[in-house]
């Protein structure tokens, strides 16, 4: 590696010199070589390749992140679209407003029907209050024993009065500590003997009178008559709906009426001196908010796709998805869907302009809330609230009034060409419980035969018939009034009638397997013709859908038939069958903009099989493959570096050996070695014989 050359002045290569002093010298490579730089240079190509792979991986990761943003946007858009696509959603919100809000407040649910009602509150339901005779001292001593109090047919509350609490106030405290349906207080009426025990029922209604069983008979204290005076009688609420001779008056044990007006709950606050109006109307606020949320979500998707696919001529600020065909196709599909007329909706309301929507110059949606509100409230000629609902939501119609379209789900497809066929193989039924014997032509009801324990739709209650003498028809009316007036059975009304044989029959107004009527006890059962503990139940509707000759199964829930979730066309399709015998109908289903958008978005968001899942999987595979390649290249660089380090180490060892030889030679004479030539000269002293 190092060439050897002469180090003596004026001496020719290969010549012999008589110089007596000798110096041995080695120059060139030595252990001071920068081997790290040499190795870096030798592995530069490999490390450049790794850097390029890491750059590719970062670019793919950024693209995957861009699609994650789009996925979040689509999820938000789907949520907003669902609020509009459901036919029982934002467009089926109602408000109920009473003109006299000091007398009536009301709340309306999705099953309410718009309209105006005339109401008069004739009386409020109230709980009974009874008071004892007067005492001169609230701590007056009373007799000892047991004291029981009961409200209506509820559970009795019993307390024990002994030497620790045998005062008027002690009895009140004992009753309050025991709980139950009665509260107790000692009041002062300002008379000569002003202190009275006041018992107040927590239950309202004429049937909920207070009954006291007074067994305070021992000791030297004063006797107490807890029901000496009825301060406030138990009473039902009475409300008249309508006016004139045809008005109807209903009673309720509670001041909350849930079944007088469909879908509306009334809260009675005070009586009225004159009729007041109750207006049930669509809640435009909910619909406007839902449409605005839809606009915001749509614009977010569109704007984010625009940012992710934008082109920057300088090349420094282009979107990570520039040139990505999947992103461009999604944006185009959204725009095309939103701007297209909706099939099945009348021409005056088949596009977004009917709902106050328009496109800005940038392509975003903009909402004019005034236009939308006017359309929802019927102030736009040729456009109704139903039209706006059909513009967005899934809608449908049938050719048989006994089978009505109700709603559909995100997977319910619109009919293409022929309508879907609905087959009702077994109509839903209600529970009807018939007595085994007819009531007498004249029946007297008194305290010995006035209670009936019933269960309606699985809810138990005990009702008390009003004492009196009744014909069979009057007795059925009294029974129906008491069952429907029971607060425990609110929203579970029954119809009580006489069968063709004259027997009393009780029919639940609910359809399906949840419908039930049972008699579980009571003193009035025999007088009404019931024996034992009879019960009856209803059945769900049964049937299916047929699409292009293929049967798709359905499940029955009361009168409602719902397509199975696995159906190809009718998944989630719901119809109500009020038929009384097997039959059928044809149903036509239309998808509004939001419903169509749901189908499109679902095709991207469906786990495992959706388009986003496919895109994400492809990116994940690419990233994984590059990671594997980087790992392999790093291993190759490590191996090459290790090999070079070994070779350079061996070279250093060889050089060190040469240095050792140099040092040994220097002890014997002068040898000069040069890095530039292969010659050497010797200057050792010797005798010439030539």
UniProtKB/TrEMBL annotation:
Any one cellular-component term (Gene Ontology): bacterial-type flagellum filament cap
Organism: Frigoriglobus tundricola
Protein name: Flagellar hook-associated protein 2
Database matches in Pfam families: FliD_C, FliD_N
Cited function: Required for morphogenesis and for the elongation of the flagellar filament by facilitating polymerization of the flagellin monomers at the tip of growing filament. Forms a capping structure, which prevents flagellin subunits (transported through the central channel of the flagellum) from leaking out without polymerization at the distal end.
InterPro entries: FliD (IPR040026), FliD_C (IPR010809), FliD_N (IPR003481)
Lineage: Bacteria, Pseudomonadati, Planctomycetota, Planctomycetia, Gemmatales
BP GO terms, sorted: bacterial-type flagellum-dependent cell motility; cell adhesion
Localization, UniProt: Secreted; Bacterial flagellum
Keyword line: Bacterial flagellum, Coiled coil, Secreted
Domain Flagellar hook-associated protein 2 N-terminal: 31-127
Self-association state and partner proteins as the record states: Homopentamer.
Family: Belongs to the FliD family.
Keyword Nucleotidyltransferase: no
The keyword Transport belongs to this UniProt entry's keyword annotation: no
Domain Flagellar hook-associated protein 2 C-terminal: 234-456, 574-659
């Amino acid at each position: 590696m190092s060439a050897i050359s002469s180090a003596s002045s004026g001496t020719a290569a290969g010549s012999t010199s008589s110089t007596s002093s000798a110096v041995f010298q080695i120059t060139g490579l030595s252990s001071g070589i920068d081997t790290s730089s040499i190795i870096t240079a030798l592995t530069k190509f490999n490390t450049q390749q790794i850097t390029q792979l890491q750059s590719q991986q970062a670019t793919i990761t950024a693209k995957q992140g861009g699609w994650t943003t789009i996925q979040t946007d689509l999820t938000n858009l789907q949520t907003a679209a669902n609020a509009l696509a459901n036919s029982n959603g934002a467009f089926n919100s109602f408000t109920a407003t009473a003109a006299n809000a000091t007398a009536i407040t009301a709340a309306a649910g999705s099953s309410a029907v718009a309209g105006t009602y005339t109401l008069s509150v004739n009386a409020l339901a109230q709980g009974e209050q009874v008071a004892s005779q007067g005492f001169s001292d609230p701590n007056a001593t009373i007799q000892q024993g047991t004291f029981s109090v009961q409200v209506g047919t509820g559970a009795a509350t019993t307390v024990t009065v002994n030497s620790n609490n045998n005062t008027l106030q002690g009895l009140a405290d004992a009753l309050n500590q025991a709980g139950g349906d009665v509260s107790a207080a000692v009041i002062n009426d300002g008379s000569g003997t002003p202190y009275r025990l006041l018992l107040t029922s927590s239950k309202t209604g004429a049937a909920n009178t207070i009954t006291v069983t007074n067994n305070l008979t021992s000791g030297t204290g004063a006797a107490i008559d807890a029901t000496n005076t009825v301060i406030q009688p138990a009473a039902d609420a009475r409300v008249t709906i309508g006016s004139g001779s045809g008005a109807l008056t209903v009673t309720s044990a509670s001041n909350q009426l849930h079944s007088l007006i469909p879908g509306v709950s009334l809260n009675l606050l005070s009586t009225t001196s004159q009729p007041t109006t109750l207006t049930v109307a669509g809640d435009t606020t909910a619909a406007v908010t839902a449409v605005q949320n839809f606009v915001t979500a749509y614009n977010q998707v569109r704007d984010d796709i625009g940012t992710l696919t934008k082109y920057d001529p300088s090349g420094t600020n282009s979107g990570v998805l520039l040139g990505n065909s999947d992103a461009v196709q999604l944006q185009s599909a959204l725009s095309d869907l939103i701007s297209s007329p909706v099939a099945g909706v009348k021409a005056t309301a088949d596009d977004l302009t009917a709902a106050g929507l328009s496109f800005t110059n940038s392509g975003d949606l903009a909402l004019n809330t005034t236009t939308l509100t006017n359309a929802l409230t019927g102030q736009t000629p040729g456009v109704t609230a139903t039209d706006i609902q059909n513009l967005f939501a899934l809608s449908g119609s049938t050719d048989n009034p006994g089978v009505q379209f109700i709603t559909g789900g995100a997977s319910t497809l619109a009919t293409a060409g022929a309508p879907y066929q609905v087959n009702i193989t077994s109509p839903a039924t209600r529970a009807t419980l018939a007595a085994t014997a007819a009531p007498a032509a004249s029946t007297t009801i008194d305290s010995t035969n006035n209670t009936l324990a019933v269960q309606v739709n699985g809810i138990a209650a005990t009702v008390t018939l009003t004492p009196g003498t009744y014909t069979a028809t009057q007795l059925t009316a009294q029974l129906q009034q008491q069952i429907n007036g029971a607060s425990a059975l609110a929203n579970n009304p029954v119809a009580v009638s006489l069968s063709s044989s004259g027997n009393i029959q009780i029919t639940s107004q609910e359809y399906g397997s949840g419908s039930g009527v049972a008699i579980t006890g009571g003193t009035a059962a025999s007088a009404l013709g019931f024996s034992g503990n009879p019960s009856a139940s209803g059945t769900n509707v049964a049937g299916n859908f047929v699409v292009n000759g293929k049967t798709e199964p359905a499940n029955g829930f009361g009168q409602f038939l719902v397509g199975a979730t696995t159906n190809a066309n009718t998944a989630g399709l719901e119809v109500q069958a009020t038929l009384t015998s097997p039959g059928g109908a044809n149903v036509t289903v239309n998808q509004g903009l939001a419903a169509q958008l749901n189908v499109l978005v679902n095709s991207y968001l469906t786990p495992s099989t959706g388009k986003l899942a496919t895109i994400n999987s492809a990116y994940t595979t690419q990233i994984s493959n590059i990671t594997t390649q980087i790992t392999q290249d790093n291993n190759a660089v490590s191996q090459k570096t290790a090999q070079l380090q070994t070779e350079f180490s061996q070279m250093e060892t060889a050089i060190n050996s040469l240095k050792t030889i140099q040092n040994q030679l220097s002890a014997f004479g002068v040898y000069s070695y040069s890095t530039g030539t292969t010659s050497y000269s010797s200057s050792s002293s010797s005798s010439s014989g030539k």
